[in-house]
Amino acid sequence: MRYADFLRETWRQTRVVAPIDIKHAVSKYAPQFGGWAQHDAQEFLAFLLDGLHEDLNRVEHKVPTEAVEADGRDDCVVAGLSWENHLKRNRSIIVDNFQGMYKSRVVCPHCDRVSVTFDPCMYATPARTVQREQSNASTLARRRYLQVPVARSQTTNVRLLSDMGFC
């Protein structure tokens, strides 16, 4: 309710509106945001958007879904199937406006098997990394599965495919 009040006040006023009521409401459920210490704005926004999504999610009965592997299929097809799976469990204005699909391409250094998946994301952030020998391409697919390069690096935070039982 505090968020709705904040939005009403924002659109009604021509002056600056302090979001202190939202901060207090969020800190009731996430004490790490209480007090006056400096906090990570991205973590705060992620917590807020996730909470709003959960409250606004129109899916009442969440059906189980399985991850979609590329298996040689076109990226647009795989991204579309992955997005459809995601929407079976997640339907909200937050999903419509803030979520997309993150493409992950991983090559096993032992057997050269390539795994390509698309996973939902709220935002693209640098991950904690583990040094790897080869680079992995990452792509963000959003809405009609447009692909926007995100990063290429010599590091990745994924487990080896052999650790996941793929080879």
Structural overview:
- By secondary structure, the chain is of the alpha+beta class.
- The chain is 34% helix and 24% strand.
- It has helices at residues 2-12, 20-29, 41-56, 75-87, 93-98; strands at residues 100-107, 114-121, 130-142, 146-156.
- Strand 1 and strand 2 (114-121) form a beta hairpin.
Short structural description:
34% of the residues lie in helices and 24% in strands.
Could you name the key traits of this structure?
167 residues; alpha+beta; 2 domains; four-stranded antiparallel β-sheet; 5 helices; 4 strands; elongated; disordered C terminus
Portion in strands: 15-25%
Fraction of helical residues: 25-40%
Provide the domain count: 2
Number of strands: 4
**What sequence of helices (H) and strands (E) makes up the elements?**
HHHHHEEEE
Q: How many H/I helices?
A: 5
Enumerate the spans where pLDDT stays under 50 for 5 or more consecutive residues: 127-167
Q: Tell me the distance between the termini.
A: 50 Å
Strand arrangement across the biggest beta sheet:
2-1-3-4
The largest β sheet comes out as: 4 strands, antiparallel
Whole-number radius of gyration? 19 Å
Q: Please, what is the average pLDDT?
A: 75
Q: Which structural class best describes the helix and strand composition?
A: alpha+beta
Q: Please state the overall shape, judged from the principal axes of the Cα atoms.
A: elongated
